[in-house]
Amino acid sequence: MAWRSSGATNKDLVENMWRHGLIKDQRVKDAFLKVDRAHYAPAAPYEDSPQSIGHKATISAPHMHASATESLLPHILPSETRPAPRVLDVGSGSGYLTHLLAELVGDRGLVVGLEHIQALKDMGETNMAKSAEGRALLDSGKVKFRVGDGRKGWVEAPRGGETRDSTGWDAIHVGAAAVELHQELVDQLRAPGRMFIPVEDDNGYDQYVWAIDKKEDGSVVKEKLFGPLGNFVIYEGDNAPDFAILSHTWEAEEVTLQDVHDAQKDITLMAGYPKITGACRLAQSQGYDYIWIDTCCIDKTSSAELSEAINSMFNWYEQASICYVYLSDLDYSIYQQPGMTAPLELALRECRWFTRGWTLQELIAPDNVDFYDKSWHLVGSKLDESLGPALANVTGISLDILNKTVPLESSSVAERMHWASSRVTTRKEDLAYSLMGIFGVNMPLLYGEGMKAFARLQEAILQDTGDHSIFAWHSNYETSTQEAAFDQHILSGLLAPSPVEFSQFQYLRPLPAFGTTGQQPIQLTNQGIRISMYLEPVDDDQGGDDGSAADDFYAVLDCAIQGENGDQCPRIMLRKLSGNQYARVRTGSVCTVIPAPDSTRPGRGSYKTVFVKRSPAYVLPDISVLKAGWKAGGAREAYRVVDSYPTGPWVPSLGILRTGNPYFEPVLAGLRFESPTNARIQVDVVVGWRRVDGEWKVWCHACEAQADLEVDVLWGDTQFAVSGGLDQFVETDVEVKVQVEGDVARNWRSRGFAQVKRHEVPVRVRLVEVDRLGRKGVRIECCAPLQPHIPGYQKTGLLPWDEYD
């Protein structure tokens, strides 16, 4: 059981056990407050842990005494049917629990402490006599200490008013584990009565704590209370004893803390149980009394405890005296057979442990790490001359870091990210949470945020360091993907999406800034990063054919990698969006500069303060459409949009076109406009983007609609034409002549037919710049002169024939 119960005083200790629900009954709490544990465990009386008292004996942890007292309480309190409770404490040791029980049995009760060693029996009496309350109990005869074989129990002579037939025990507490449940103890229980006893399992190693109840009819019922993993103790601060710690990969049926406490569950049948007992046996054989195992030592039902554990995990592994790495998929015996030539390193590369995110810190943090195969055969230590180099090759971590001959902080951010670049976790958030200790940062846990957790991790790192290597990442695009084809136009922030992007550089190291005039510290905002970077303009011949070179800059990072010709500094490409707002582009590659810039370098670049949003976007004007029916430019009516392609950008309810990446969508949409009074007057307008003098401008192309062609056909043709260049699409104000024919009608006078005269309607399409509260926009106006007398299109029907030619 895991409890944070240690305190500075006896009252603190008791209050902590009360607060954590270990002591539930007020009467038990009062008894614990009366008995000062300092009289029984003087070395560290208020620590919630077992302690040696000599003679190969220990005083149990206070929480164990609390569990026993709470379990026996109904049978040790005086009542009408039990006015003088009798309690036997087998293995009374220091006498602490004997005193506690005596505070609860009432004035007529009796508690006998039984020890098999005279010195321990004397110790119990001496300790109890240290307090006035203890001396009173001894003097009154309510407490007696005896020497005898606890396996056989004890028969105390009858007191006044008692007969030999009534001298059994209402409650028996057994402090030391028994190999088996001895019948003599069961026989001495009164009916009803209860015994609290730890019993070894069949394997001789595990222990369960049982409650043995004798019912009024004499029948005996056994109930498993907890076990078999022993006592769970939590130490706070730096006062923890030497302990071992287990590193492993989670698999099916791991034993959790809830499983351990579930009295109805037999955890020995769970798949993860042998792994735990194997680690416990190993720790015990090496002289450790404690071991920490993440599966069963964290209450994962408590979000607060889980958050604390994850934020503290690196420190716990660092503080451990020894870390056992259990490789469940490695059979080391194969590599010990005569004639085996396959190197162990190849087998280690296949072990799942080396691919998991959490195990990275479990390899780095402890001083001593021993590796074991699936049968708990020792493979070696990370400090071994043979295994150490193999671990360095498999993990990419230098021997200096593994052996701790250099501090972890000497490695750059990018190098540490590189170690994690090939590792995975079950939950996306854990890719970030598992690295907190590696970078010495803390964060609240927000499961459900996905990869935003990794962005938060990088921001937390930047708050502690100005290491530019955190920006030396590259996107791992597949060559066939759209992202790879348009890499130069994808806008990105400065932070990497995941650790995978740090696979390129392994040994980057931070450099002091060069040309530091005007350099400023990194500032984090809720929108992005403000940072001073060394910018060099991209030469025109290095830019694309899209006119972006004038807006692109190389940002040379203040870090370096050792190359054949000296230090090389990585550089990334930034694109200016507007003002001091930039975005990263061409994330599919990180170039290097030779040599590293220094004071002797020609001054092509300089430090500039730039602002990069988390999710940057091109600064584009809003595009709206003049509402149909509105009058514009005198006696002109605005046409309505009746069709669009593709359907996504056009939002009829708002009268706007939604914009995307202008490089990916130079043709934004095709719109079909129609006269609100004449459905046969239609104009197709295609709208797109072009880059002019560092700003995005809207262009349009208009033509008379063809009745037999849908708007997507024109859009597709224009899209194809745009791929050859945008020079032909520069219209911002264009007039389209729309030919309109009248209806064909029968002439009743001549019994022939008359053709309505063809008319030409001038439709004007123009782009008008507008300003809404300081935000620039463009309004598309498709208008034509009012046409009240076009033959054949009056709502009242055909005009008189004398108006036709």
Automatic annotation (TrEMBL):
Domain of life from the UniProt record: Eukaryota
Pfam families for this protein: DUF8212, HET, PCMT
CDD domains noted in UniProt: AdoMet_MTases
Domain DUF8212: 452-489
Heterokaryon incompatibility domain segment(s): 243-332
UniProt protein name: Protein-L-isoaspartate O-methyltransferase
